[in-house]
Amino acid sequence: MPSALLKEGSxxxxxxxxxxxxxxxxxxxxxxxGWPDRSRLVSLAQTHSDVVRIADGALGCxxxxxxVATDRPGLLLGVKTADCxxxxxxxxxxxxxxxxxxxxxxxxxxxxxxxxxxxRRSFSCRPEDLVVAIGPGIGVCCYEVGPEVAxxxxxxxxxxxxxxxxxxxxxxEANRRELIAASVAAERIWTADLCTCCSPEExxxxxxxxxxxxxxxxxxxxxxx
Length: 225
Ligand SMILES: [Zn+2]
Known about the structure:
Layout: E1 6-8, E2 11-13, H1 15-18, E3 23-27, E4 41-45, E5 52-54, E6 60-64, E7 67-70, E8 76-81, E9 85-91, E10 96-102, H2 104-109, H3 111-123, E11 131-134, E12 144-145, H4 147-151, E13 167-168, H5 171-181, E14 189-191, E15 216-222
Parallel strand pairs: 4-6, 4-8, 5-7, 11-14
Antiparallel strand pairs: 1-2, 3-15, 7-10, 8-15, 9-10, 9-11, 12-13
Bound molecules: zinc ion.
Residues 139, 141-142, 195, 197-198 line the site of zinc ion.
């Protein structure tokens, strides 16, 4: 798994997705201004659900949901996060892209699994072809959760078994395992390994600054020919 990060201005990119010249993508930071291009942006009213929508040409907010997929060039699929994980997916064979917002609720509800299912069903994607980038989010270093949240992850993260009270939840690892369970190849999953809560100069963090409500864009899109 390549761990190198690319950074241009204040936007991070994954080398795995960057190698695909037919797409554009990026993970914004709190210092990102004037990006992404709003005139091509497709977004969601995010609700921590497992709802996946297809972008078929409409721009702006296309409804409630937490993942959006398309095979249409020119659109920029965007999710907004501040601790939750932005997850970007691409299928180089079918030329399809998806953007996912995954906090603990969405992860527990299986949002990445649902997204892979939708790509398979609606676009004939094969999970083993997918390339996935998990962007900056709250790290296991900072993400202490109560027993009721930990309970939801015991099957996905069996190492939590035996723990009592609060635990540190590894949301990146939970999503990585969900992807692998959905037949995505481990070597095609890239993780930014950047904790939003640890880096106040770079990232908004809901946990660190609950009153500020700042969120950051992450986008992916297919370039026009
Ligand atoms: Zn941290």
